[in-house]
Protein 1
Amino acid sequence: MPIRKRLALLLLGSLTVPLLQGWTPPEESCDFQRVKAHPDPKALLREYLRRDFSGEFESASPWKMGALLCPGHGPGWDSATIVASYSIGVAPPGKKVLSFPVTYQILGATWSDGSIEEGTRRERVVFVLVQTPYGWRIAEPQQNPHVDPRMLLNAPMYSSDGRRQLQRLVDLSKKRQN
């Protein structure tokens, strides 16, 4: 079996077999949106990342439901990763399955109780997009929101100390972008 096909099988598990042999709709609990959308995979990924960074995915998002291959299997998150920036790499050539590397500049994490953990690092995540008869969809990863710290400053769960901590992360984010 070619290495690319083996990699796709590893990345997508049971969803990949039907995709490589001819598209089969996911199971009903998957809540796949049968609406024509997202003809360009890179444009889909750019828009997904932009919306995630802006904090849209901190709550239910109808747009996200139509962007994911299997939105019905996604968890409800009680945390978010605080991100200074992200960049999209080049996907190896493919026809029905594309894997785009995305590199995040992480500043820390936050939880629904208002706690914040600072910690800068670089994180590389591979986004797997699949072509369906309805357009491209994001199959992987299922990850918590990755949010710009400026989008969190006015959230009600943060104490005054939490807001000061977030402001430090905003300032750090600005320095990293210059």
Protein 2
Amino acid sequence: MISKGIPKTFWIVIYPSPNSSMKDICFDADVAGLMRQTRGGLSEEDIVGIYAYRDDAIEKASRLLARMRELNREAGLVNAPL
């Protein structure tokens, strides 16, 4: 398969669940790896973004995790692991 213009490795950020950690929602992949993830159950709706640069992905994932912690506190789940 040809994937012209796409970085060999890119970064995927998915929506967190209440107990997600950074490694759960931010990971690197290549085209074949992303295809395997979708066969394993990852859907387009799960993906927040695909980033060429790690720092951009970590920045977005950090904001999502911070928001999830805030929601956990509001729901009384203060000690829920992240």
